[in-house]
Amino acid sequence: xxxxxxxxxxxxxxxxxxxxxxxxxxxxxxxxxxxxxxxxxxxxxxxxxxxxxxxxxxxxxxxxxxxxxxxxxxxxxxxxxxxxxxxxxxxxxxxxxxxxxxxxxxxxxxxxxxxxxxxxxxxxxxxxxxxxxxxxxxxxxxxxxxxxxxxxxxxxxxxxxxxxxxxxxxxxxxxxxxxxxxxxxxxxxxxxxxxxxxxxxxxxxxxxxxxxxxxxxxxxxxxxxxxxxxxxxxxxxxxxxxxxx
Length: 245
What we know:
Blueprint (H helix, E strand, L loop, with lengths): L4 H46 L3 E2 L10 E2 L7 E3 L4 E2 L4 E2 L2 E2 L3 H4 L3 E2 L2 E3 L4 E2 L4 E2 L4 E2 L4 E2 L4 E2 L7 E4 L4 E5 H14 L2 E3 H4 L6 H11 L5 E3 L1 H6 L18 H11 L1
Parallel strand pairs: 1-3, 2-5, 3-8, 4-9, 5-10, 8-11, 9-12, 10-13, 12-14, 16-17
Antiparallel strand pairs: 6-7, 14-15
């Protein structure tokens, strides 16, 4: 039974070393892939701007956001806006072209600090915000007022931003909170993951401090560059409003 055991051990050792090297190479490839995707995303923002589209500071505009490039000069996105995956922004409508030999082009103006859930469709000729939140899978067919929460097909006002924030503030005061600095995907340990899962058995939880870390350049959300000339972000706006009352 012991015959050849040394050979088998040698093969096992070499296999383990190959696995280690392979894992290191895959980790390195993942790092370079992330850098490439970030560079590609920044290149896209730059290209859209050269084509006339306004993209503000601190904007989260993912690569999956479909932009009407043929009419992107009619699209304006204000500072601090955010888009979930696979949103669509249209500034033209050519459905009547075959019948009238004419297509429609209309401006799309998204003011500062607006946020759109995944797969939201924004149609030509609308204005949104400022500080308007739109739920996932909505269709923005008409302009939406500032500081509201909207959803649906077509998107309609559900409540005011103040009402929406008040509900979450009340939940934050009593609900479990976990700091982003410790519970983000890169710093997550099996013990922390289990803590989250245990808390989630009792209901929703809040991850706090993520946006603050993004302002320091440590967050995971890719944003367009920003500086002191940007309009006040949501936290700054609420503080300024509270101080002026």
